[in-house]
């Protein structure tokens, strides 16, 4: 019951005095127009009423796609559950458990989106970058109401590089290189680094072989021409 009362208080525009994130009411991390569409939706009224951190998982594992709004500005379940998370404000350990469990990819995606909205910049990079190695397929609901195929690593890359994802404006992240220069982040080592080095080495080896082959042809041609001249002289 306390969660329900707190949730109503959070959505109240008048003098919110609860917990803040980035110096504001957490619900306001979603634009007012989006919040209004969410709270007016059937899914919000029927599926998000009086749920807690545990029962939210039950809703999340039922999701079959992610996205923002579609059709006549109808919010996806993904967006509705994002607002519910902003109301519940689960402990960081709970969010990380959502993120790192491997059985339900849309729960992981929901947690990644919540991390991007609520964590500070350094923790966003540290928490989300490991998911750039997650190649699970996920479906995204398009604004027209259809679906498109994407991958978890692409979704996470969008969260790290774009200012708007799933119909939601995101706080601008400082460039990673800036945080590296400030000593707040270590230089990122790409998981593809070794493969890229091997490809470069093979390319260099191929160019070396081509160069050697070209030189050998020139030597053969020179020898052939020399033999032809000697033959003409002997004649």
Question: Which keywords apply here?
Answer:
235 residues, mainly alpha, two-stranded antiparallel sheet, 11 helices, 6 strands, globular
> What is the residue-averaged pLDDT?
84
Please list the strands of the largest sheet in the order they lie side by side: 1-2
Termini separation:
112 Å
What share of residues are in beta strands? 5-15%
Largest sheet: 2 strands, antiparallel
Describe this structure in words.
By secondary structure, this protein is mainly alpha-helical. The protein is 57% helix and 8% strand. It is built from eleven helices and six strands. It has helices spanning 2-11, 32-39, 42-47, 53-61, 77-88, 92-100, 105-118, 121-128, 152-161, 176-181, 193-234, and strands at 69-70, 74-75, 137-141, 147-151, 164-165, 168-169. The strands form three sheets. Strands 1-2 form a two-stranded antiparallel ribbon. A two-stranded antiparallel ribbon has the order 3-4. α4 (53-61) runs antiparallel to α5, α5 crosses α7 and α6 (92-100) runs antiparallel to α7. It is globular and about 65 Å long. The N and C termini lie far apart (112 Å).
